[in-house]
Amino acid sequence: MDFDFYLSTMWSVLKALPLTLEIWFFGIAFGLIIASGLTWLRASGYKFGEYFTRAYVFVFRGSPLLVQLYLIYFGLSQFDFVRHSPILWPILRDPMYCTIVAMALNTAAYESEIFRGALRAVPVGQIEAAKAFGMSAFTRFRLVTLPIALRLALPAYSTEIILMTKATALASVVTIMEMMGTAQKIQHDTFRPIEVLTCAGVIYLLLNLSIARLFAWVEYRLSPHLRPPPEQSQQIKPVPEVL
Amino acid sequence: MSANVAAAAQAASSPDDKAAISVKDLRKCFGDHEVLKGISLEAHKGDVISILGSSGSGKSTMLRCINLLETPDSGEVRVDGELIQMKRSRDGHQLPADIRQVERIRANLAMVFQSFNLWSHMTVLENLVAAPTHVLKRPRAECLEQAEALLKRVGIWERRNYYPPHMSGGQQQRAAIARALAMNPKVMLFDEPTSALDPELVGEVLRVMRSLAEEGRTMLVVTHEMGFARDVSSKVMFLHKGEVDTVGEPKEMFARPPTPQFKQFIANFNK
């Protein structure tokens, strides 16, 4: 075992972690915004909204993220109007922006489905109670529907976020030197795929472990009502079910 | 004819004698099935009206039409003399004309549900404070103080920081009654409040309801508790197949059932 090589590779790949996190963060942030819009469209009751979101989910969930990324990065620049657009071109000529756009559009399709399911699973009785106490639609949503739906969506949402972490590796195919891109470069330079890819794999594992623990903690904090009642938990110490 | 007009004008304008709840000729269909076939009801301040009927007789639907959880197909509902304005949609369905008015009226008509419907992600105390602070816009400190007093009254103050799933059905229903009381409602609507409870838990809820009746609250109670209907309520209304079969003074009605349907109904309960 060549520890020095492992260490230096580890360090080189780690230096690319901020870039990976940047793609990850902006991808899921914009994805969340788009997904919220889609969920709202779908729930609004307008026929157009329903057809649009269905078509959106069909396209972006049904085709590979890699295809979407290539189409956005290599494909869209084939159109003259894109190259001459003062708004589109600065975004679409940059591989970093393209990756973020592709990730956001892709994850939004999955997330909107997660949110739709969570909204539908909110117990009708609790919404009715909010109505019966004179709450307006907005207050009802803010105090009852949204808090309950968020708790229901969290487990599936955390899985989607972990999938997105791994998807950031695709940025390497459009020249971004994030962790995977860096690892590939070292591999090409040294012809030592096992060591290099093991290092990258371990960092992705640790990254996802922290994300999973973070979500488990949030879930634990948000659902005291699903744990044993107080007097029972005084006897049995509550063990957070992390992972 | 002119007498009717005069009576109607009087009902609309006289402020002293307005009924707390007045329902006229309420009709409601679910698909082809006509659940309410023209129901009328008047509840004055301090009335405790028990609404009886076998399942499917429309009693819950009637109650839910009063606070517009169900939209009646026709008929009118007045709360404290104020008519709930309705309009027709393009496909001929009736809709509330002004949702703000409906929300304002609902805030005066606290409801207690069969399955409690406490908000499960809030503690009992938060359940009691949510609507008064956000709907009535009362100061939070004042609401908290009132909430604690109400929880003491229904005997679950020790559980104020519990979440609903951690309490027994009887405790949850008492919390739900306290939540309704926290709105200082003009009228309380009870939709089979004891039907989802284990038999040994029914008593604690009925005791709370009885104490509310005794302090002169206006209550509409859809129930299967014959004891409560006979001993506590000031009026009993018996629905049969979507129509008012009979209305009367409880002791009299139970002693001498005025219609064969009602006689049959209570006979089934005494078996």
TrEMBL record, chain B:
Q: Where is the ABC transporter domain?
A: 21-266
Q: Which residues form the signal peptide?
A: none
* Compartments reported by the entry: Cell membrane
Write the record's keywords in alphabetical order, separated by commas: ATP-binding, Cell membrane, Membrane, Nucleotide-binding, Transport
InterPro entries for the chain: AAA+_ATPase (IPR003593), ABC_ATPase_HisP-typ (IPR030679), ABC_transporter-like_ATP-bd (IPR003439), ABC_transporter-like_CS (IPR017871), MetN_ABC_transporter-like (IPR050086), P-loop_NTPase (IPR027417)
- Give GO MF terms, alphabetically: ATP binding
Q: What is this protein called?
A: ATP-binding cassette domain-containing protein
**Family membership:** Belongs to the ABC transporter superfamily.
The transmembrane segments are none
Which membrane topology describes this protein? Peripheral membrane protein
Gene3D superfamilies per the record? P-loop containing nucleotide triphosphate hydrolases (3.40.50.300)
Q: Which PANTHER family match?
A: AMINO ACID IMPORT ATP-BINDING PROTEIN (PTHR43166), L-CYSTINE IMPORT ATP-BINDING PROTEIN TCYN (PTHR43166:SF35)
Q: What is its main location?
A: membrane
